[in-house]
Amino acid sequence: MAEQGNRQQSTRMVVTIVLLVLLALGFFAASFFVLT
Amino acid sequence: MSTATAHDDHHHGAPKGLMRWVTTTNHKDIGTLYLLFAFTMLLVGGAFAMVIRAELFQPGLQIVDPHFFNSMTTMHGLIMVFGAIMPGMVGLANWQIPMMIGAPDMALPRMNNWSFWILPFAGTMLLSTFFMEGGAPAFGWTFYAPLSTTFAPDSTDFFIFAVHMLGFSSIMGAINIIATVLNMRAPGMTLMKMPLFVWTWFITAFLLIAVMPVLAGAVTMMLTDRNFGTSFFNAAGGGDPVLFQHVFWFFGHPEVYIMILPAFGVISEIIPTFARKKLFGYSSMVYATASIAFLSFIVYAHHMFTTGMPVAGELYFMYATVLIAVPTAVKVFNWTATMWRGSMTFETPMLWAIAFVFLFTIGGFTGLMMGVAPSDMQYHDTYFIVAHFHYVLVTGALFAIIAAAYYWLPKWTGHMVDERLGKIHFWWSVISVNVLFFPQHFIGLAGMPRRIPDYSLQFADWNMVSSIGGFAFGLAQVFFIYVLVKTIRGGEKATGQVWEGAHGLEWTVPSPAPYHTFETAPVIR
């Protein structure tokens, strides 16, 4: 990992993870909104 | 056990002792932990199934009281889905995905450790409900409200917390897999060069991220309905119990594909190896997997045909459901076409894979029958349903995990599996599993409801046959323990290549796979 990594790659990694977490939170929230 | 994965290599080997397993961030160690956990849960859930089949051996109440019987069906389902099949697939993903894409490990190794170590606690919490006042949850694995809210035992709150934890673990695991596949592929490993197993898991991970939070939403609403005076699912307070089914099945239907898509991936690895041909229609396999994943979101209410939805709704969900047969048939066709005129040999993994193709297809066809709304009115809540989903999940998902174990065990342990024992296990299982589940089609069509401890006399004969098959199948899996232990402890040394027709990066490393692989990325041309 350390050998392979560079700043660009870790930025991409962080963006990937943030987007995926937001997706999960979005679906969690949406499950409540279907009620209204 | 530690001999299975503890190897010297030029960097450093595995640490020694118990703390190796508690603190490990190594994808192979974590894969092993997942697989061991899954197998343990398979035996626990299997023991519950034995109780169910023993009670149903004859009509009348013989062994357990009805509430406990309901707890057995509930916990059998929950343990098998969340404890055995899903962690089993995640275990395979942990072991194989980094090796198959030429990555040194998963993208988020510490989170990987956390994802796993949540599971034993969640599983223990779920099982601990048996010892609580009022007994374990007994409302079925689908935990429909109001049975799971107004009329459920106190232990249900522990069940809810366990589901929250299991879901959290799955979401973290899915994020890890997507981050790994998107960011850690070796140079030259383009998306359309990835092995099918990686592709199917990649797509499955998106399904997990989309639907596990919805499951968390459903149980959170149950929690507040039970304890904080809300009325999401309580008609008396302005809520709607049928709403629970909508939320649950929005999770529940994709969940089925979460369990079966990685199985498709496994089969797509094994068949080309033993047919000694490239997989027929690689790109169509990828698109078919993506199509099945997409369709899984828009068909869920076919589980609810009998709730009294408008005819237009029934028609839509019926047509959308039947549409899934198209990409699924693409897959079955491609596997068959891969075998066509191949130089086939029938080593143990191949036998399991071929059995998968036949028996999963039976489960698929009965699924089509139930997808047709008017006929589903007949099948709904009968043993026909039980037969259907066991063909999909046992001879489908479980057979694929077992096939994968036989296929990759030489890579994991460095030892070839004793072919004779593997074949005994295969034939024993494949015969008994059909004796177990095929008659359930008959008693279901004849009208026997599911989830009952007692039944009318006319169902007696086939229930007895089914139970005999059940005991035999259970025993076959105990025999599997012997095969596994024997392979881990010793046996013929495996080469790096292992199987003559095997292709892919995992077969370029020695067997057993070193503790660290691909620290320098391989280049794929």
What does this structure look like?
The complex is a heterodimer of chains A (36) and B (525). With 36 residues, chain A is mainly α. Chain A is built from one helix and no strands. Chain B has helices spanning 2-5, 18-23, 27-55, 66-101, 109-128, 156-183, 196-227, 241-275, 282-297, 311-323, 325-339, 348-371, 373-379, 383-413, 419-445, 460-489. Chain B starts with a helix and ends in a 36-residue tail after the last helix. The chains are: A mainly alpha (36), B mainly alpha (525).
Offer a concise description of the structure:
The complex is a heterodimer of chains A (36) and B (525). Chain A is 75% helix and 0% strand.
Content of β-strand of chain B:
under 5%
Multimerization state: heterodimer
Distance between the termini of chain A: 46 Å
CA-based gyration radius of chain A: 15 Å
Task: Let me know the number of strands of chain A.
Answer: 0
Note the run of SSEs of chain B as H and E.
HHHHHHHHHHHHHHHH
Rg over alpha carbons of chain B: 23 Å
- Structural shape of chain B: globular
The low-pLDDT segments of chain A are: none
Summing up helix and strand content along with how strands pair, one would put the structural category of chain B as mainly alpha
Helix content of chain B: 55-70%
